[in-house]
Design goal:
Length: 203
Amino acid sequence: MFRTASDSRTVVEPSRRQFLNGVGKMTLSATAVALIAGRETLAAGKGKSMAASPSQDVTILNVALGLEHEAIGAYQIGAESGLLEKPVLEVAILFQSQHKGHRDALAKAVQKLGGTPVETKSLEAYMTALNVASIKSQKDVLTLAARLERGAANAYLGVIPSFTDPTLAQVAGRLAADETMHWTVLAQALGQPLPTGALSFGA
């Protein structure tokens, strides 16, 4: 499950800041939304009734896909670190599998729109980007994962106001819900207190 091939090819460098401040200001077509949700029949109908912008859709979806690749890589690194105890490792595998589900849905949508899904980077590249050299304990692994999960939740929530199609807002909300659930479990494992104020995500 954790074997990952190195990939030296050039890839897009996505970021949550780009997702929120740049790409996130654009709007996915209804066709793309239906594809992400796995509703191909609806996608065909939307394509006939509404003007789509495939290149714009592909750009937005690929930035989101890059975030999922990063999360998968982070959990891979944590699993192979030897720092996680068995119960924690099992949860990490579960969360990674859910991110793989997000990845597969996004990649499939990109392909059906005629685009090329952005590829994952090598584990070595993620290790450098995430400063893995500073990770010395299980707590360090969980702290990194929690930070990434909270960032992903905020990224997905942050783009919802720019969507004109309510179906897209729902899809983004479902993705954000998964990330928020992951963060909550990790925060509890770290002994961190739950947020005391309301509306603590997406601000």
